């Protein structure tokens, strides 16, 4: 303990953090409050207190759709997506980071470039592709492409570059470990903080994905949550109360995943072990 | 070099695939459908729409035709819906029946993604005399071929608060109030009077944007004629009008669909709203008296009258895909929506919406009474105004051009950009979005 | 330290690299390449999305290089990005340092809460903000008025200056927690003994931050900055919802993706929309590769 923080500094630090926390929680809080209000109340005011329309909004939802089916559909798409993106992302990143094979530079540039392509424009081609492959109205186009998720590869490669020394692999080779086995048993566990971070990002990305399922799916019993929630938009006016309730329901698993994985990133941070 | 070759080869393959996918399949050759008992119709069709209205329609349809399975997909958010239909249609994969809103119907009619339902095997033209003429006209392409129909008509009027009318105009009678609003000048004079009499606490209308349908419908030229943009004098005047309204506090400064628009609707500080048939049910009722759960609780403090200019706003049309595999069932469904008297009667009693079928209108309009409007017969009012609607000036550009124009006027009004500059920005935007048009 | 052996080894093991990246390459080729090439072919055509393709050669490209709207959109996008990214990355660094170096009450809570804005879809957030920022009835104006910070309500979404400010703010707010999370994950990779050594040498937190943390975060920061450029250049949902789609007032927040989206889907000019997409791709590549090269060179 060589650095004694003056009391005023502590106060300022807390004030800033509390302010930031307040503006971060605000949309969440308002979303939850709004789920208990009627359409007009939401359009008219900022609702800071609960209203009495929760039941009406819930009825509105169940009248039009089976939201729990949507929940299940979303999980069925999101969980394999996240698992595939993390495993193959790590594998690909490892391949790029630790091996210099012919064309690796070119391929890695391709990874970077794919990230830069605005997703909106591939839509029509994407539809035609899956129409030709007879994959429309299936979940395959929503899951398998996650194997080739460029941002995941980029992130993990950056992490490997700074966290996994070549010497580690050399040592494993000397011990007679097969490369693939080294990856699975040695490298993968060391990537936990990066994988946990990406698990959150990719879960959120897949869970909230709207435009791709919109283009691919058209049977209501296959719809994911964002598609169902968007169906609550009414004829000429929006059913805001029900939409917010739908959003509230759909946030729950995200929070759960976040709480679970964030501990893996944040918990026991390097300098955290230093008793300050 | 090898890389270049590989890429070129790939490009060629892609191009080939794309064009292969563009091949049309041959269409069926039936000339007319034979009549069958309702239960003899069996099979499945798909229906897509941008609203959830078909849920109700399909429920009613299945009460009559229990063996037809209708798979409905609701895709909300106008642009997403258009994108989804366009991608499906360009792959010859469109659903059997799909709907369009007035703002994008012309795009699909001009492109011919809907089948010609006027002639064989559908023969809708033999039935269309039962519908309000403008509804049918809207569904025709440039050559008069009928491709879509609507079960609604959406004429508009001016809804006003009777209590405020009584206070500031001395009467709440729809005919008397209507007489005070026969021209834009009258309407603005009235706005000034109410502003003064209320010390700027009550306004006649919420925003200059609410008035848009009057200048839009007063145009003598379509927005686009022979590939050229026409900006009529009424439109140029609308810039000044809007500015005058803002600068002189003639409105409540609450733009349509903004949160404040709803709050002034409920708190009684704005006297009138310019809305069409559906606006009564979807905007005004929930907006003005949000706590009412049962029609008998309505205060009846609203009236409906005609404004300076007849207009219509919105509407949902249905067409049958060019590539449908089951034209008979697709037509059965569309025909049911437009012409089935049992369904239409239920629709009027249960939803209160205004239909396009003249037979139904004739049946209900004599003793219709709307509790929200203090028992006023809104059906008879709308029936009158619907017959006068002319859609000959509608083009596929309208919704885009009108949106750009309102933005330009808003710039003049809200950001004090000079009129000429705002107008030039508007024309630049039109020219850029539609390079095929001549813009002077 | 024998350079030779390590080189020999990496050659002999190189085929494993190819084997490891193969699944990615196959899936990429199958699912992503086609839409990309499809878009590329489209740039040489005029197509309304429904009728036949019309070949027009390089006409779309000729239009792009002289298109004022494209340059306006480029400028707008850069402006929003700069106004959001600089405070975002700086704050993320400060917060990560604070969380990493100090143990204080509620640390875990704050860490968790800052990421929350990123969990809700951008569209919902934009809808929420358009209600908050309403001119006459919005809470933001009501709060500012009651605090006497302003005397007239600000027309947030109708005056270009405020609209740009509001958009950048939302962008900053939505992503600062995300950036913090990444930076913290990067900090975790810094070996603890470096700090121990520095501490023994008597270094304070500030010195440690600039001497150890920042240099060793090079890869993380590269990732943050490059993805921020890539993401920032593609900003779409928030300005799209806030403005009703055309980037008004006065196209001040018409971004590049909005422009290509409108051109393709709203005005059904898919050929030119694709060309804008490729123009945008060039811009993003230029910026991000420049950033990548510079960041990777520095300090290595």
What this model shows, in words?
The complex is a heterotrimer of chains A (276), B (440) and C (300). Chain A has helices spanning 7-34, 39-44, 54-64, 67-98, 104-116, 119-132, 140-143, 150-163, 166-174, 179-190, 192-207, 211-216, 225-230, 240-266. By secondary structure, chain A is mainly alpha-helical. Chain A has a domain at 66-230: MetI-like (MetI-like fold). In chain A, helix 3 crosses helix 14, helix 4 packs across helix 8 (150-163) and helix 5 (104-116) packs across helix 8. The longest helix of chain A is centred in the first third of the chain and has 32 residues, at 67-98. Chain B is built from 18 helices and nine strands. Residues 21-26 of chain B have low confidence and may be disordered. Chain B is 46% helix and 10% strand. With 440 residues, chain B is of the alpha/beta class. A four-stranded mixed β-sheet of chain B has the order 2-1-3-9, with helices on both faces. The radius of gyration of chain B is 24 Å and the shape is globular. Chain C has one domain (63-297): MetI-like fold. In chain C, strand 1 (45-46) and strand 2 (54-55) form a beta hairpin. In chain C, helix 8 runs antiparallel to helix 11 (218-233). The longest helix of chain C is centred in the first third of the chain and has 34 residues, at 68-101. At the A-C interface, helix 1, helix 2, helix 4, helix 5 and helix 6 of A face helix 1, helix 2, helix 4, helix 5 and helix 6 of C.
Task: Give the termini separation of chain A.
Answer: 6 Å
Number of helices of chain C: 14
Helix content of chain C: over 70%
- Sheet having the most strands of chain C: 2 strands, antiparallel
Q: Please provide the count of β strands of chain A.
A: 0
For the record, the CATH architecture of chain C stands as Orthogonal Bundle
Q: Spans of chain A of 5+ residues with little confidence (pLDDT < 50)?
A: 267-276
CATH class of chain C: Mainly Alpha
What does the largest sheet of chain A look like? Answer: none
* SS-based class of chain C: mainly alpha
Q: Could you name the CATH topology of the domain at 66-230 in chain A? A: MetI-like fold
């Amino acid at each position: 303990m060589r650095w004694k923080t003056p009391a005023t500094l502590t106060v300022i630090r807390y004030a800033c953090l509390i302010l930031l926390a307040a503006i971060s929680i605000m949309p969440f809080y308002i979303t939850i409050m709004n789920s208990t209000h009627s359409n007009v109340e939401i359009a008219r005011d900022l609702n800071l207190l609960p209203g009495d329309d929760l039941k009406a909004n819930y009825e509105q939802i169940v009248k039009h759709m089976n939201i729990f089916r949507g929940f299940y559909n979303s999980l069925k798409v999101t969980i394999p997506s996240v698992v595939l993106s993390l495993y193959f992302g790590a594998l690909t990143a490892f391949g790029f980071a630790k091996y210099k094979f012919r064309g690796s530079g070119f391929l890695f540039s391709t990874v970077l470039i794919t990230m830069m392509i605005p997703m909106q424009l591939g839509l029509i081609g994407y539809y035609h592709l899956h129409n030709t492959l007879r994959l429309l109205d299936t979940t395959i186009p929503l899951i398998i492409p996650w194997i080739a998720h460029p941002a995941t590869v980029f992130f993990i490669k950056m992490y490997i570059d700074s966290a996994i020394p070549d010497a580690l692999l050399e040592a494993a080779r000397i011990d007679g470990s097969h490369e693939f086995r080294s990856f699975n048993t040695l490298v993968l566990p060391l990537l936990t903080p990066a994988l946990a971070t990406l698990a959150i990002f990719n879960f959120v990305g897949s869970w909230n994905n709207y435009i791709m399922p919109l283009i691919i799916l058209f049977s209501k019993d296959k719809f994911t949550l964002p598609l169902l929630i968007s169906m609550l938009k009414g004829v000429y006016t929006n059913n805001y109360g029900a939409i917010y309730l739908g959003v509230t329901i759909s946030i729950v698993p995200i929070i759960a995943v976040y709480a679970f994985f964030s501990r893996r990133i944040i918990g026991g941070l390097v300098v955290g072990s230093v008793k300050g | 070099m090898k890389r270049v070759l590989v890429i070129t080869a790939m490009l060629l393959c892609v191009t080939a695939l794309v064009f292969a996918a563009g091949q049309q399949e041959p269409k069926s050759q039936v000339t007319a459908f034979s009549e069958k008992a309702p239960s003899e119709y069996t099979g499945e069709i798909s229906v897509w729409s941008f609203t959830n209205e078909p849920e109700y329609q399909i429920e009613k349809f299945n009460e009559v035709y229990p063996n037809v399975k209708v798979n409905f997909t609701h895709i909300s958010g106008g642009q997403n819906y258009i994108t989804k239909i366009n991608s499906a249609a360009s792959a010859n994969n469109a659903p059997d029946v799909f709907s369009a809103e007035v703002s994008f119907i012309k795009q699909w009619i001009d492109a011919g993604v809907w089948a010609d339902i006027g002639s064989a095997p559908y023969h809708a033209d033999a039935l269309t005399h039962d519908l309000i003429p403008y509804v049918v006209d809207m569904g025709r392409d440039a050559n008069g071929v009928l491709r879509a129909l609507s079960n609604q008509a959406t004429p508009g009027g001016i809804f006003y608060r009777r209590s405020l009318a009584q206070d500031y105009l001395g009467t709440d009678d729809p005919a008397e109030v209507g007489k005070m609003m026969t021209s834009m000048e009258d309407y603005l004079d009235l706005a000034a009077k109410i502003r003064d009499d209320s010390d700027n606490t009550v306004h006649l209308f919420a925003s200059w944007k609410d008035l848009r349908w009057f200048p839009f419908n007063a145009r003598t030229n379509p927005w686009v004629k022979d590939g050229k943009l026409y900006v009529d004098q009424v439109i140029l005047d609308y810039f000044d009008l809007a500015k005058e309204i803002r600068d002189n506090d003639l409105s409540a400064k609450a733009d349509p669909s903004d949160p404040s628009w709803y709050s002034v609707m409920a708190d009684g500080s704005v006297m009138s709203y310019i809305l069409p048939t559906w606006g009564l049910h979807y905007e005004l009722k929930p907006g003005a008296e949000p706590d009412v759960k049962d029609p008998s609780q309505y205060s009846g403090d609203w009236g409906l009258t005609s404004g300076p200019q007849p207009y219509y706003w919105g509407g949902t049309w249905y067409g049958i895909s060019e590539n449908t595999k089951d034209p008979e069932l697709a037509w059965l469904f569309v025909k049911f929506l437009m012409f089935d008297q049992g369904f239409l009667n239920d629709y009027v009693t249960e939803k209160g919406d205004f239909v396009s079928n003249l037979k139904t209108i004739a049946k209900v309009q004599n003793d219709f009474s709307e509790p929200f409007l203090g028992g006023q017969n809104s059906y008879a009012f709308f029936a009158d105004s619907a017959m006068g609607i002319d859609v000959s000036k509608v083009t596929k550009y309208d919704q885009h051009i009108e949106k750009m124009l309102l933005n330009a006027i808003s710039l003049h009004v809200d950001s004090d950009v000079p009129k000429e500059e705002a107008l030039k920005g508007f024309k630049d935007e039109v020219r850029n979005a539609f390079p095929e048009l001549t813009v002077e | 330290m024998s350079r030779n052996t390590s080189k020999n080894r990496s050659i002999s093991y190189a085929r494993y690299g190819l084997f490891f990246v193969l699944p990615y390459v196959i899936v990429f080729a199958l699912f992503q390449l086609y839409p990309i090439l499809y878009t590329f072919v489209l740039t040489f055509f005029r197509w309304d999305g429904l009728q036949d393709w019309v070949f027009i050669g390089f006409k779309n490209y000729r239009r792009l290089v002289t298109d004022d709207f494209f340059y306006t959109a480029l400028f707008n996008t850069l402006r929003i990005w700069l106004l959001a990214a600089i405070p975002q990355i700086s704050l993320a660094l400060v917060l990560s340092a604070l969380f990493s170096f100090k143990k204080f009450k509620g640390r875990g809570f704050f860490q968790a809460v800052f990421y929350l804005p990123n969990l809700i879809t951008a569209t919902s957030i934009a809808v929420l903000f358009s209600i908050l920022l309403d001119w006459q009835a919005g809470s933001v104006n009501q709060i500012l008025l009651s605090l006497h910070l302003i005397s007239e309500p600000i027309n947030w979404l109708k005056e270009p200056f405020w609209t740009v400010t509001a958009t950048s703010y939302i962008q900053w707010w939505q992503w600062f927690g995300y950036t913090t999370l990444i930076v913290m994950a990067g900090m975790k990779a810094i070996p603890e003994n470096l700090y121990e050594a520095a501490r023994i040498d008597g270094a304070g937190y500030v010195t440690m931050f600039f001497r150890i943390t920042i240099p060793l975060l090079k890869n993380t920061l590269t990732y943050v900055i490059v993805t921020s450029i890539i993401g920032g250049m593609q900003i779409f949902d928030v300005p799209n919802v806030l403005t009703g789609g055309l980037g008004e007032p006065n196209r001040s927040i018409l971004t590049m993706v909005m422009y290509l989206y409108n051109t393709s889907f709203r005005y059904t000019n898919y050929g030119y929309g694709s060309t804008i997409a490729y123009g945008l791709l060039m811009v993003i590549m230029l910026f991000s590769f420049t950033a990548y090269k510079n960041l990777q060179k520095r300090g290595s």
